[in-house]
Amino acid sequence: MTTGASAGRAYERTHPWLTFSIDLKRLQHTGWLSLGEAVSMSGHIAGAPPEPEAAHEMHKLYLAKGALATTAIEGNALSEDEALNLIDGALTLPPSRQYLGREIENIVAACNIFGFAAYALAGLVDGLREQIDSIREHQWDIAWVHFVYEWFRETHGVKGRRQRSLVPALSQVKQEFRIGELPNLNADLAREYDRVARRTLFRDVDSLLRLGLLPHGPNGVRANRERIPAFPP
Prior knowledge:
The termini are far apart. The chain has 9 helices and 2 strands; from the N terminus they run H-H-H-H-H-H-H-H-H-E-E. Residues 1-6 have low confidence and may be disordered. The longest helix has 35 residues, at 117-151. The chain is elongated, with a radius of gyration of 27 Å. The protein is mainly α.
């Protein structure tokens, strides 16, 4: 009986055309461009410092997206939420659907295996673009809060504290908000403006409008995050 390296693998004798290799010379120029873009965006993502919770959530999200996209080729009918819950260990599937969960788990376990070049690169680039947008939005939020606090760094007193708290709170909704409803943004603002006359709120907003931190639109005011200086692309 032949054993060890001399024996080789059975498929090499019975199916010699299965080489499990890829001829990259056959990859179209668009594939190489996508690969270069993916490498560039991966570098941007690798150097981004999101907060731990946000990083963990993004890792799970795109792991689920990738595994689901791969298994969908074979007809996997799980939803994105189900795939996320499966990765979290919070999904119990009935016996008739357990095979769908195993497909996702197998892909997650083998997520580093080289796949279909052109198809995989296109999907990778799309996913990286979406991920970069999410990271940029998260970092912009952090930078905006720091920008506002730095703006009011030399401002002391109750008035300055109210205005400094109002801008980041409004930033969380990312839409125009009616001035009279601003104290409802969170409990701290509600307490602050409950202690003063109603006109104080409008005076604070007027001050922030003059500073350019809150632009006024047809439906109210919003946080002017565009005030943050940024390097042009």
